[in-house]
Amino acid sequence: MPVPRRYVTDAIVLSRFDLGEADRVLTLITPQHGKLKAIAKGIRRPTSRLGGSLEPFAELRVALARGRTFDVVTEVHVGHAWLALRDRLESAATAWYLAELADRSLEERHEAEPQYALLHRAYELLDAGMAPGRVARWYEMHLADELGQRPEVDRCVECDRMLEATEAFRWVPPLGGVLCGRCPGPPAERAGLSLDALKLLKAYQRLDIEAIASLRLSEETEREVEAAMREFMRIALERDPRSLAFLDEVRARPGARPATV
Ligand SMILES: [Zn+2]
Fold first, then answer.
1. Is the pLDDT of residue 186 over 60?
2. Ligand 1 center to residue 163 CA distance, Å?
3. How many A from CA of 83 to the centre of ligand 1?
4. Which residue from 46, 48, 125, 155 has the least number of CB within 10 angstroms?
5. What is the pTM of this model?
6. Quick check: 52 pLDDT over 50?
7. Residue 2 pLDDT > 70, yes or no?
8. CA 224–ligand 1 middle distance (angstroms)
């Protein structure tokens, strides 16, 4: 689809960096134009009309003009400001992590309607106060699906046999999911996956998020699935998300409050 010289789109800020004296370059996710970079000229001056509205963790309505290197932001309105999300440090750190996953997984200027809807929903859930870990796992699982890399949790990734509750499993992200007890795994030292963790991985694929929110889970199972999905995303995206270090730091300090996000 050819992009007109001026256009208006919904957008969520994924990342940003300052440029020169007063400009800022933003990476946006939009439904129709996918990921794109745009420049907000003069935004760091106190008199800027664009002011503080071009922030992450909000759904924005943005007017853009085609530019040579970056498109230029000419107007911004805030559609949804997910303010409660920003008030809790772990929610905000999780929101950064989800934004980074979206950023890493999208190509510029490719339609990204499902990925946009997914991030939008995840931010709504964080804003509504849902446990950040469950929102993150739900998002990872569905993003992997959108990338065509849905983790295999029903059949063995090697022999294709249906997994049985009584056998031992291993989680092998480079192979795309779970390896059964009978198959010789390439990495013999790889830790097993518990049956509870396997059930929870299945739940993230099958249940809607409201049902997942109401599950009673042991912390141990949640941690196991967290480690499993983080590893899966790291392999799928071929790198370590940088925001994870921050998220882990935040969680290590319970009760910490954000200064600014
Ligand atoms: Zn097998």
1. yes
2. 8
3. 47
4. 46
5. 0.90
6. yes
7. no
8. 21
Could you tell me the distance, in angstroms and rounded to a whole number, from the CA of residue 178 to the centre of ligand 1? 9
Residue 188: pLDDT above 70? no
Residue pair 113/119 in contact (Cβ under 8 Å)? The answer is no
> Which pairs from 51-55 meet CB under 8 Å and 24+ separation?
53/77, 53/78, 54/13, 54/16, 54/24, 54/26, 55/13
The better pLDDT of the pair 100, 188 is held by 100
Say if residue 15 is exposed, middle or buried (CB neighbours under 10 Å; 0-12, 13-18, 19+): middle
- Cα dihedral across residues 170, 171, 176, 177: positive or negative: positive
* pLDDT tens digits, one per residue of 78-110: 999 999 999 999 999 999 999 999 999 998 989
Q: Select the more confidently predicted residue: 153 or 168.
A: 153
* Ligand 1 geometric centre to CA of 191 (Å): 16
Give 184 Cα–ligand 1 centroid separation in angstroms. 8
Centre of ligand 1 from the C-alpha of residue 179, in Å = 6
**CA 241 to centroid of ligand 1, rounded, Å:** 31
Name the DSSP letter for residue 1: -
Structural domains in the chain, sorted by start:
6-81 (2.40.50.140), 84-153+162-252 (1.20.1440.120)
Residue 123 CA to ligand 1 centre (angstroms):
38
Cα(96)–Cα(183) distance, rounded to whole angstroms? 38
Structure tokens belonging to residue 249 = 């730091």
* Spatial CA neighbour of 70 closest among 109, 21, 99: 109
* Strand positions, DSSP E, the chain: 6-19, 23-30, 34-40, 58-65, 71-81, 169-172, 177-179, 192-193
CA 160 to ligand 1 center in whole angstroms: 6
Element (H, E) at 116: helix 113-127
147 CA from centroid of ligand 1 (Å):
24
